[in-house]
Specification:
- The strands form three sheets. This protein has a five-stranded mixed barrel with strand order 1-2-3-7-6. A two-stranded antiparallel sheet has the order 4-5.
- It has a single domain, classed as OB fold (Dihydrolipoamide Acetyltransferase, E2P) (Beta Barrel), CATH 2.40.50.
- The chain has three helices and nine strands.
- With 122 residues, the chain is of the alpha+beta class.
- Helix content is 25%, strand content 36%.
- Helix 1 crosses helix 3.
Amino acid sequence: MVLVEGNTKYPGQLKGRTDTNRIAVFDSTAKVPEKIPYSIGEMIRNNSIKKEEFDNRIKDLKTNGEVSSIQKGDYVIVRCDDHSSRTLFCTPIAKATLSDFTYFANKRPFFVLDDYPVSKSF
């Protein structure tokens, strides 16, 4: 999860910082769900949702749910697709509050990639 700081020097990108102060960049035109429903959050918390199912539910939320654009000051859940020595290149997933994110994550990795938990920290 990142706190959005504003635009990057490149058009069409926003930047934010993680809790470890890493810079994350992502598409500024992305529309994301206002929040992740608790039903999905409970599956994340109980570690009972696979990556494909999570992606499909988020895709459904983006087409059928309330979506909004990302603005400075928002907390956004992101998926890190790539990284360099100083920057994370991410895809925005949904807006969230700190309390919701902490509850969902429950000190576990938030995303599962290829059916195994991500163990390294960026």
